[in-house]
């Protein structure tokens, strides 16, 4: 049986696409190899959002020429956004590549590999499924949870993007917006929850522009019929909360600020399943730059919307994405971004140096902020956001928090750290001194003992300790059975983009 390995670059959408490739290949009779060295087929799932990410693919393929030479029948597949962007050109430029497959063509991968095995020529398939969009479902194994035992899973609700942010290649690599029927989304979430998943993250490029293509959702409370920014996202959240009561947490990423409408704010105020954290990319705090970026909101509109959200859900935290050094960004524009970061008080921030991308409207503008200035602005940005996070984490010491336990820590800390997870606001918490208990997938109450730079140290409260199950009693009744029933999450090698 041929063996495969997948290496993933880039965002959560790519991590999710890699999971679907695992499903598709396994169903076609392939088995997963321990790593590229043992693989007959190697898939590189690529990212092209910044130039650096794209360069990573090129150097990786260069390195893999040797891997291919070691055995003549080895197959190298390039998937993801660089595949979509470059298509056939990749085959011409890099002879080591055998198959190029776009994000919408994942189901065709086994067929393409089969043709190649029968002597076919290298091939590129990068066609958007605009007429009949396909959304591949997760196939959870009962008891183990989806994605190999993790208590958290991703569910795609839409793909593509109809915005035209002037810096962004995504509308080009992922195509126009296509939405998935709400019944299908609810069914997938229900199946995942039945298999042991506790937290779902809804995925989409502008996840909150969602509309049900079959018109199956009632209008959400607070939704205005004549607001062009209104969508059916709040209605979808309500439908999920109502139909899947066993779900502990429902996150989503990434929303566009212009669809943070009153109906969505109201859903946050009323649905307990929505955690008190939202990642809301802002990109810049300068109106002049926001206009050039074609973001379609002003700083004041963004601030007003986030204020309304925080007023509706006290204690809600926000994180964001910011680009520094966009064409024409002056010191004053950057100062406006820094002041916005402090005004909103983000508790997390991904910062990126502007990078010119093919096919984007901003190519018309000169990339006139020097690499040095970009680097220096990024450093100042991180300094500001680290200070905000440190003060926030420090302020949580002595409080009790609810943590969804997502896994075991790789390294035991001095205090015997074993479990880690996240609060509803997404803070990372390490739980000490609970090594004898089985906490995976549980929502437990902890007392925060200390703050680290990016996370918190905590101990179970007495009540949580009394309610927790000892490790040996889980699953089949013996320790070996317990381990087998809860396999560790399959570790997909993820090569993160630069920045935050
Ligand atoms: N809507 C997507 C965003 C895709 S890109 C989502 O769901 O996450 C992720 C982030 O990369 C953007 O928010 C932006 O901050 C950054 N980015 C995109 N294009 C970029 C470019 N050309 N240069 C630098 N950063 C970029
Ligand atoms: Fe990119 Fe803007 Fe869409 S950042 S993904 S074009 S919302």
TrEMBL record:
EC number from the UniProt entry: 2.8.4.3
Localization: Cytoplasm
Positions bound to [4Fe-4S] cluster 1: 11, 47, 81
Cellular-component GO terms for this entry: cytosol
Pfam families: Radical_SAM, TRAM, UPF0004
Top-level taxon in the UniProt lineage: Bacteria
Binding of [4Fe-4S] cluster 2, residues: 161, 165, 168
Identification of the protein by name: tRNA-2-methylthio-N(6)-dimethylallyladenosine synthase
Species assigned in the record: Sorangium cellulosum (Polyangium cellulosum)
């Amino acid at each position: 049986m041929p063996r495969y390995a997948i290496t993933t670059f880039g965002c959560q959408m790519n991590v999710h696409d890699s999971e679907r490739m695992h499903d598709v290949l396994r169903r076609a009779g392939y088995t997963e190899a321990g790593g590229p060295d043992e693989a007959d087929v190697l898939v590189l799932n690529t990212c092209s959002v910044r130039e650096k990410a794209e360069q990573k693919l090129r150097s990786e393929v260069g390195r893999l020429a040797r891997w291919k030479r070691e055995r003549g029948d080895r197959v190298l597949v390039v998937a993801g956004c660089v595949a979509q962007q470059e298509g056939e050109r990749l085959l011409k430029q890099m002879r080591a590549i055998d198959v190029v497959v776009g994000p919408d063509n994942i189901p065709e991968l086994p067929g393409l590999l089969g043709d190649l095995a029968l002597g076919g020529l290298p091939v590129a398939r990068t066609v958007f499924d605009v007429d009949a969009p396909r959304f591949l479902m997760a196939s959870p194994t009962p008891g183990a949870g989806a994605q190999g035992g993790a208590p958290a899973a991703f569910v795609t609700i839409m793909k593509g993007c109809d915005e035209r942010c002037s810096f962004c290649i995504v509308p080009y690599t992922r195509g126009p917006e296509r939405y998935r029927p709400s019944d299908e989304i609810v069914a997938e979430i229900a199946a995942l929850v039945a298999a042991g998943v506790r937290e779902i993250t809804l995925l989409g490029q502008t996840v909150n522009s969602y509309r049900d293509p079959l018109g199956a959702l009632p209008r959400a409370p607070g939704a205005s019929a004549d607001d062009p920014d209104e969508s059916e996202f709040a209605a979808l959240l309500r439908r999920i909360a109502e139909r899947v009561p066993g779900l502990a947490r429902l996150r989503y990423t990434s929303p566009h600020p212009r669809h943070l409408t009153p109906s969505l704010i109201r859903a946050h105020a009323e649905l307990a399943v929505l955690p008190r954290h939202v990642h809301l990319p802002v990109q810049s705090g300068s109106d002049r730059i926001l206009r050039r970026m074609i973001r379609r909101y002003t700083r004041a509109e963004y601030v007003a919307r986030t204020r309304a959200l925080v007023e509706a859900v006290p204690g809600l935290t926000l994180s964001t994405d910011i680009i520094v050094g966009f064409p024409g960004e002056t010191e004053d524009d950057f100062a406006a971004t820094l002041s916005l970061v402090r005004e909103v008080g983000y508790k997390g921030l991904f910062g990126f140096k502007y990078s010119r991308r093919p096919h984007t409207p901003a190519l018309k503008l000169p990339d006139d902020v020097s690499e040095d200035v970009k680097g220096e602005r990024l450093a100042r940005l991180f300094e500001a956001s680290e200070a905000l996070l440190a003060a926030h984490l420090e302020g949580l010491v002595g409080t009790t928090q609810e943590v969804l336990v997502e896994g075991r820590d790789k390294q035991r800390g001095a205090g015997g750290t074993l479990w880690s997870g996240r609060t509803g606001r997404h803070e990372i918490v390490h739980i000490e001194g609970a090594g004898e208990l089985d906490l995976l997938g549980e929502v437990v109450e902890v007392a925060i003992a200390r703050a680290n730079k990016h996370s918190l140290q905590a101990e179970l409260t007495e009540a949580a300790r009394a309610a927790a199950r000892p490790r040996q009693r889980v699953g089949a009744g013996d320790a070996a059975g317990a381990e087998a029933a809860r396999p560790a999450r399959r570790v997909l090698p993820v090569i993160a983009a630069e920045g935050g």
